[in-house]
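Re: export button greyed out
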Amino acid sequence: MNKHTNEKISPAKRAALVGMLAAVTLALSFIERLLCASLPLPPGVRPGISNIAVMFAAVALGLPFAMGIIVIKAGFVFLISGAYAGIISLSGGVLSALGFWALRRFCGKKLSYTGISVVSAVLHNAGQLAAASLLVGSALYLWMAPVLLLSGVVFGLVTGLTLNAVLPSLLKILPHIRKSETSENGGR
Amino acid sequence: MSRKRFFKKWDLAIIAALLLAAAALFLLRGGGGDTTAVIAVNGETLYEIDLKSVEEPYTLTLENGVSIGVAPGEIRFFASDCPGQDCVRCGALTKAGQAAVCVPNQTLIALRGAPDKRAPDAVSY
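Workaround output, generated via the alternate export path:
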């Protein structure tokens, strides 16, 4: 479906869209960092609202472009917070994008974006936790897994519902994407 | 474009399954009861501190330069030379099962609940 979609977007338009979505992703994760300082969240838990932009990129442009944005975001984290944080960000991002793409592709009729986003958020946390556990050399996952599983479900629900809510408006602005979207998900 | 766009049957099934799994993990990990702080560097436990017996706050500086603040009932990353400072931003750990980590310095602090106060494996009436 996405191949079909991409043929209709000119390369220039596509490049501009990727750039904009990457910028939105970085801005959202920056805002989240500011907000989290004043939210009573347990240590290590973040809502992951920037995933809304990554998921939209996966819907609108396909997996390779979503991966590109994930790499850009990890590069940004690398510059701000160092190599370890960059590796952790990359690991979570890649795993969640693969999960999002696979579920949408193979279970798209049975699941809405809400469920796909929940699984994707849980995978994001799992990827980050796995990378962090390896880097720290401690059994970190024993401590963090319950909290991160629960927060993945809760915030995956939030981001998934948000994606569902904003998708119609975004597809109105980007009419070349609407066709594949409605033929894939609309009838159900 | 009805309500089905937001929730389908299988969405709810997956969410319920994941929530059950989370609940099971919380039960397995235990929690509550007395709290013992564990400080581990690179997988090796260096200190175990019973936070109940701490009377005066103090800081503990590890060999890797990370300093850890210990106070009655709580423990936190006090200072670290890492670029992200996520560990310091985590703040104080006060409840059993909480953990914070400084990945660049391979340092983990965690609060362990008393083992004998863990949740039972099964309850029958």
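Residues 182-188 of chain A have pLDDT under 50 and may be disordered. The button fix ships in the next patch.
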